[in-house]
Design a protein that fits this description.
The protein is of the alpha+beta class. The chain contains eleven helices and 21 strands. Helix content is 25%, strand content 27%. It is globular and about 70 Å long.
Length: 394
């Protein structure tokens, strides 16, 4: 720790944390979660447990005159043997809403995941100190966005002037659930995920429940959404159900209805937007499961392939084309008695022609430019031009 400043240490609490549904006290620090403890006790696999602990959209927020900020963290570095090394997660500092500085924790715990067996092991690592200096010497709103794809223990927060909780922004709270695309896969910075970008364009406060590999219509996720205060709600459904080969057509419709019914218990009149999958050629007409392309991994590239047979869709296996048709039908039927329910075709966010211009680098996830494209289109379709999230005049 630097000795050049007269530091004030502030306890890390929910008073200065945004975008998390729970803050767990551990022996080493405070761990933000994007699912509450009750839901986490019902998680059936390590994939979702890891995704829910990765703080996509989670940020520390406070008001201060401080010119220097230090944050002690323990980051979890993921290693996939045979796959290209993952870049360090990025911490972004925003001052009065403007990105001002970025840094990373070069070391931390190491989580090694075997993609073939889906087993993992963890090696403990050190606490790292992140420093942000030369901030304006005036009262300002400061946010530190945590890495969207790197589990982060928050150990200590120090500033060279006292801080206080941020003032209410007055913006609507947008609660969003989706897959790894919503989580932010292949985005390079936490404010560069499409939900974060869309929230900025739509002037909304984001709670991002995008879970890599885990948008699977889980009832505990629906209950978490039901119990989370929000003004605007969206669910992006489809790609994980296909690439996990989780269910058949017979189960899909009732599961969607049940998920939406549960959300409506807590948000009976909030605008609720159902978003279908963006274009993903490997799964448009080919069912799952999806698997890494090991031949590409041997060349140092990460790609995915669909393992199903298109003929299997006749027996009820799901494809993205089938899911879009079913979601459009379900929303149209429910909207007859729910005027606040809306549908957005994912192909309007990223379609076949977009794929020709901006292909998915690993055949499954968008690159940073495509995250921005999706965000801009979502903001235009949902937040503007009399979209479902546009405030209505009484």
């Amino acid at each position: 720790m630097s000795s050049r400043h007269d530091w004030t240490t502030t306890a890390i609490s929910t008073d200065i944390l945004r975008g998390a549904l729970d803050l767990e006290r551990t022996e080493r620090g405070m761990l933000p979660h994007r699912l509450p403890a009750r839901a986490r006790r019902q998680i059936p696999d390590d994939q979702l447990a890891m995704a829910a602990s990765q703080p996509s959209g989670v940020r520390l927020a406070f008001r201060t005159r401080a010119t220097a900020v230090e944050l002690d963290v323990v980051a979890t570095k993921r290693v996939y043997p045979g796959a290209p090394p993952r870049p360090d997660g990025v911490y972004e500092l925003l001052v009065d809403g403007r990105p001002t500085a970025r840094t990373s924790a070069p070391d931390g715990d190491t989580l090694t995941v075997d993609l073939a067996s889906m087993t993992s092991r963890t090696r403990p690592g050190p606490v790292e100190t992140l420093r942000f200096i030369d901030l304006p010497d005036e009262e300002k709103d400061v946010e530190i966005w945590l890495p969207h794809d790197e589990t982060t223990l928050l150990v200590a927060l120090r500033t060279d002037a006292p801080l206080q909780s941020p003032r209410p922004s007055g913006r609507p709270v947008w609660l969003h659930h989706g897959s790894s695309i919503s989580h932010g896969s292949n985005a390079t910075v936490p404010t560069g995920t499409w939900p974060a970008l869309a929230a900025r364009l739509g002037e909304a406060e984001l709670i991002n429940l995008g879970f890599s590999g885990s948008a699977l219509l889980d009832p505990f996720t629906a209950r978490a959404m039901r119990d989370t205060p929000a003004d605007l709600v969206s669910v992006k459904i489809g790609i994980n159900l296909v690439n996990a080969d989780l269910m058949r057509l017979r189960a899909f419709g009732p599961a969607v209805h049940g998920f939406l019914d549960t959300i409506r218990e807590g948000h009976p009149t909030a605008p609720l937007l159902v978003v279908s999958p963006i274009c993903c050629p490997i799964h448009e007409t080919t069912p799952g499961p999806c698997a890494p392309d090991y031949s590409a991994m041997s060349e140092g590239r990460l790609r995915f392939v669909a393992m199903g047979d298109p003929a299997e869709s006749a027996a009820g296996k799901l494809t993205l084309t089938v899911i879009r048709d079913q979601l459009a039908r379900i929303v149209a039927e429910r909207a007859a008695t729910d005027p606040h329910l809306h549908y957005l075709d994912g192909l309007d966010l990223y379609g076949e022609s977009d794929h020709a211009e901006l292909p998915l680098p690993d055949d499954l996830h968008p690159d940073p430019a495509t995250h921005r494209l999706i965000a801009e289109r979502f903001a235009r379709l949902a937040f503007a031009h009399d979209g479902p999230f546009t405030p209505r005049t009484p």
